[in-house]
Structures are given as structure tokens and as C-alpha cells.
Design goal:
Number of helices of chain A: 10
CATH architecture of chain B: Sandwich
Helix content of chain A: 25-40%
Distance between the termini of chain A: 54 Å
Number of domains of chain B: 1
Distance between the termini of chain B: 41 Å
Number of strands of chain B: 8
Largest sheet of chain B: 6 strands, mixed
Number of strands of chain A: 11
CATH topology of one domain in chain A: Porin
Strand content of chain B: 15-25%
CATH architecture of one domain in chain A: Beta Barrel
Shape of chain A: rod-shaped
CATH class of chain B: Mainly Beta
Oligomer: heterodimer
Number of helices of chain B: 2
CATH superfamily of chain B: Immunoglobulins
Helix content of chain B: 10-25%
CATH topology of chain B: Immunoglobulin-like
Order of helices and strands of chain A: HHEEEEEEEEHEHHHHHHHEE
């Protein structure tokens, strides 16, 4: 569940869509809606006047591949017209049904009507007449003007200029003209996906907490009060945490925006804290070898459980000190207190030697040197690197 | 426990192979640099070395291990430079450590390739918080074999923005 949520959020939104101000539809499938609302009024001749208002709505679906668009759209609309003449008046109702292709480029999609029909019902007095017009060839291609593309949602306007031009050329006055569209990338990050992730992360931390503190027990930063832990289960959680933390860095900008400011940092802090607690708990009840100390130190530093970048400096220092002490014990166990070292220097209890061919000792000296640790062996405290054989 | 430890190493190894570059590391938590107490802050300079020089701590010589050659310039790469080094035969992965001015660990990453950006990932937005390089830091790389032992190590080299 968690990984699925991460996958959806981390991989699905094409970068071109994620960018601010990129007025271009990114590769992939898009679906959207079209709305057009307009009216006009004017002289009907013979001292009369005419006015009409209408609304069209529709939807479209398109594929963007490279610099090409292929898609389909459908529109339906209705308009009411009123004609006032000195000798009387009349009303009319028109309906429109049309389908067509969406072609053009990802920058400028174009609606091409292929099949359109207008039905007009005119009522004058008690007489009504119905006429049907095939307008398939009368409607010119109309551009969708993209004005905003952000996180898989594109919006803009269409048809307004064409309508104004046509109506004006007919000697009429356009009014309330508004054509808009909204398109959604089918693979965009959605709020639902983010909500799923938020819930999954809560469950995930709860499950880790159950292993650390016991089921249903809230977090307690004092490791001495923790119950005995299931080391295997805890290490499984640590493995999962490393993977989870890595997924955070793959979130797209849009995913981060939907997840909310500061939320990812909170999760990172939570992982750093739980990782530190887990390491402390394992060290407290297990004998660990050199490789384990080294891996724990590496994982702890990589997750912020220790180190100068840790969100919990004091707790991190405690964890790091426990790791250092474990490393020190391993070094002490390897110390040679008799004979001579490779350079012929005598090895004594107060001035022990660390064999240069002991890989565990080498691992701990290397780790300690890179962590800035000191080790005390045989009562003598030195920076880690100074325990290396000369 | 060994299998779990192997898993921990493996998951870091496998994740290091994901993504666009040859190395996609684990990232650490960004934060404010602080002193880490008794475990950190040791002056790791070695007598005879020039402060801030190329080999402030000559780990390879002292540990008797082959030296990993670090390729990233000591400055000029910005606050999140890409750290690069030469490949090591037999290395299963590389542990990269960035140490703060006090000598303590500041950030660590794991890579199966021979480069890693500071902070782990090339960040999408520079406004995002994350580890970064500042004056007085050093970095080093340790190569591990499949059993988890060191096979080579670099010197601790200064790095600045």
C-alpha cells in the first residue's frame, strides 16, 4: 500500500507538466471539459431587434505524442433568441450537437468540427417551425489557448475571438462572451492519492512504534524504559525505513505541493528518531559485531539518526556514543598487549597495539576516523585514526 | 539477525542503483549543524599535514588500504556539488561521508556508482531543504566488499562551496 502510494506520487507526473509556467501539454493522455457562453444583440432590420444567449458544454480526450495531438471532442449547446419587430415578435430556441477531432500541437490544440447540427425552433404567435441545419462545414477550426499548466492541470480559453469577429461582421453586438476549458492529465498526482499516502504513513509509523514500544504504546524517547524488542522485526522496519526515506527524495514538486509544506520534513524527522531508537534498542540487548556496528553507523548517518544534521541533536549524540562505545569494545577485544607490533614497538597493557591485519579493527578504526571518534584502549585515549598501525 | 543486516546493506545497495544517475543514494535529514557531543568533534589532523590541505587525514596510508582518488574539486561546485571518485575493483558499494567543520559526521550517502550529489538526489527545487556544503567541511569515500569489509578508502579531503 505504502509503496504503491509512493510509486504513484513519485513517478507519474511528467516533468513538463510539473513546471510552473510551461504552456504546453505534456506527453500522455488528457481529458477535459469545454464551456462556451455567449450572446449577442443587434438590429434585425425593419425597425426590429434581435438578441440571443447560449451555452455550450462538452468534453474532450486527447493523446500527446511528441509534437502531435490526436483526440476527439463533443459539444452540446442551447440558445434562446428573441426577435422584436414593430408588427410583432417571436422567439426561437436552438440546440447544437457537434463532434470533432482535437488536432494541432501540445502548445496549441485545435478543435476541428467534423459533424455538427443545429436545430432551430421558431415560434411566432401560435405558429412554430423547426429547421435543422448541417453546420459541419461552417465552423472553422478553433484554437484552444493554453493559459496555465500546473501539476497536470491545464486551463485556458477558446472561441471567444472567433465569436466576436463573426458576430461583429454580421453587424451585431457580442456580449458576455466566455469560452474556457480545463484539461487533466490522466496520470497526474491527485489529492486522493496524497490522502492515501498520508494515511499509509500514519499506519507505517504506528507499525514501527508497535515493534519498538509494544502495540498501542506511544513513543517514548527514553530507551531505558523500552520493553525488550524483537530485533529481527525491528531490523525489518529499519530496512523499510531506508527505502521509505529514499522515496521521499523522488517526490515530484507537484506531489510535494499536495502533501503540504513541512510534512515530508516531519516524516524525515520521525524516521531519524525511530531509527535512533531502534539502533539504541538493538545495541542495548544484543552483542553486535564490527560489521553490524559499521552498518548501523552508516545507516544512522544516512537517515539523520546521528550526525550534525540530525533534527534531534542530543538524542543523536546518545545514539552515536552508543555506537562509538560498541566500536571501542571491538577494538579493545582486538588489542595486543604483549609482543611487538609490525614496527617492532613493544605492546603492553598500558600501550596496546592494534594488529594491522585484523579486519574488524580496521573497520572500526576507519569508521571512527571518518566519524571523528576517539577510542580508549588500555586506558589510553586517542583519535581513532591514531590506533592504526604505523 | 545476519540476514536482516544483509537486507539493510542490500536495500541501501539496491536503492543506490535506482534513478537517473549511476548512483542514487540514501539521503539524510536536513537540519541545523550542531555539535554532536562526546562521540564527535575530534581533531583528526595529522602532524605534518598542512591545515586544510589535500590530505588533512591520510586514511589510506594509516589503515594500509589502497587509496581511492577523489575527483571533485575542493571548491567551486556550489553548496550541493556532485562528489565523484575513481572506481575501485571489487567494491560492492561506496560509503560517502561529509564531515562538519568540527570533524563530526554531517551527512552520509551510499552509492554503487562513483558519484553522488551532496544530499543524495539532485533536488528538484533549490528551495527544498537538504544537506549542503559549507566552509571547513571534509569528505571521504570508503569502498566495501560484498561481506561488508573495507577494501579501499580515500583521504579526508576539504570541500567548500
Amino acid at each position: 500500500m505504502l509503496i504503491t502510494a509512493f510509486g504513484l506520487l513519485a513517478a507519474v507526473v511528467p516533468s513538463a507538466v510539473a513546471g510552473h509556467g510551461t504552456l504546453r501539454l505534456a506527453e500522455g493522455e488528457w481529458s477535459g471539459t469545454l464551456t462556451f457562453m455567449a450572446g449577442f444583440s443587434g438590429d434585425a432590420g425593419g425597425g426590429g431587434s434581435v438578441s440571443a444567449d447560449g451555452l455550450q458544454t462538452g468534453d474532450f480526450h486527447l493523446d500527446v505524442t511528441g509534437d502531435e495531438i490526436t483526440g476527439l471532442y463533443a459539444l452540446t449547446g442551447a440558445a434562446d433568441a428573441v426577435v422584436d419587430m414593430p408588427f410583432g415578435g417571436g422567439t426561437g430556441q436552438g440546440t447544437f450537437n457537434g463532434i470533432g477531432d482535437v488536432l494541432g500541437t501540445p502548445d496549441v490544440p485545435v478543435l476541428h468540427l467534423t459533424d455538427g447540427e443545429v436545430t432551430v425552433v421558431v415560434q411566432v404567435g401560435s405558429t412554430s417551425a423547426t429547421q435543422v441545419f448541417d453546420v459541419s462545414d461552417l465552423v472553422p477550426p478553433t484554437e484552444l489557448q493554453i493559459q496555465r499548466v500546473h501539476c497536470g492541470v491545464a486551463s485556458g480559453s477558446w472561441g471567444r475571438e472567433e465569436f466576436i469577429t463573426n458576430v461583429s461582421e454580421a453587424g451585431l453586438t457580442p456580449r458576455v462572451t466566455q469560452g474556457s476549458f480545463t484539461a487533466f492529465a490522466t496520470d497526474r498526482v491527485t489529492q486522493e492519492q496524497v490522502d492515501d499516502l498520508l494515511e499509509a504513513m500514519q499506519d507505517w509509523f504506528r507499525a514501527w512504534g508497535d515493534v519498538l514500544f509494544g502495540p498501542g504504546v506511544s513513543a517514548n524517547s527514553d530507551v531505558d524504559e523500552l520493553p525488550p524488542v524483537d530485533t529481527g522485526a525491528l531490523m525489518d522496519r529499519m530496512v523499510d525505513a531506508v527505502e521509505t526515506l529514499n522515496n521521499f527524495s523522488r517526490f515530484t514538486e507537484c506531489a510535494r505541493e499536495l502533501i503540504g509544506e513541512g510534512q515530508i520534513e516531519e516524516w524525515e524527522s520521525g524516521i531519524a528518531l525511530f531509527m535512533g531508537m531502534s539502533i539504541q534498542a538493538i545495541l542495548a540487548q544484543n552483542n553486535v559485531d564490527a560489521i553490524m556496528v559499521d552498518v548501523f553507523a552508516r545507516v544512522a548517518a544516512a537517515t539523520g539518526a546521528i550526525g550534525e544534521g540530525s533534527p534531534f541533536p542530543e538524542f543523536a549524540a546518545t545514539t552515536e556514543e552508543m555506537l562509538r562505545q560498541e566500536a571501542e569494545e571491538i577494538l579493545q577485544a582486538s588489542a595486543q598487549t604483549s609482543g611487538t607490533d609490525a614496527a617492532g614497538t613493544p605492546c603492553t597493557a598500558s600501550s596496546p597495539c592494534i594488529p594491522s591485519d585484523d579486519p574488524d579493527a580496521g573497520l572500526m578504526i576507519g569508521r571512527g576516523a571518518r566519524m571523528g571518534w576517539e577510542y580508549t584502549v588500555g586506558g589510553e585515549t586517542r583519535p581513532a585514526i591514531e590506533w592504526a598501525a604505523p | 539477525m545476519t540476514s536482516r543486516l544483509a537486507s539493510l546493506v542490500l536495500v541501501m545497495t539496491l536503492l543506490a542503483g535506482c534513478g537517473g544517475d549511476d548512483a542514487t543514494p540514501i539521503t539524510t535529514v536536513p537540519g541545523t549543524a550542531t555539535t554532536t557531543g562526546t562521540a564527535s568533534g575530534t581533531d583528526t589532523s595529522v602532524p605534518g599535514d598542512e591545515p586544510g590541505g589535500e590530505h588533512a587525514v591520510d586514511l589510506p596510508a594509516l589503515l594500509g588500504l589502497p587509496e581511492i582518488t577523489l575527483l571533485t574539486p575542493m571548491s567551486g561546485g556550489g553548496t550541493r556539488p556532485i562528489l565523484e571518485w575513481e572506481t575501485v575493483d571489487g567494491a560492492a558499494g561506496y560509503d560517502v561521508a561529509l564531515n562538519g567543520p568540527g570533524g563530526g559526521i554531517y551527512w552520509a550517502g551510499w552509492a554503487t556508482g562513483t558519484s553522488i550529489p551532496v544530499g543524495g538526489e539532485p533536488l528538484i527545487d533549490p528551495e527544498f531543504s537538504g544537506p549542503s556544503v559549507s566552509e571547513g567541511m571534509t569528505w571521504s569515500v570508503a569502498a566495501y566488499d560484498a561481506d561488508g569489509y573495507l577494501v579501499a578508502i580515500s583521504a579526508m579531503r576539504p570541500i567548500a562551496p
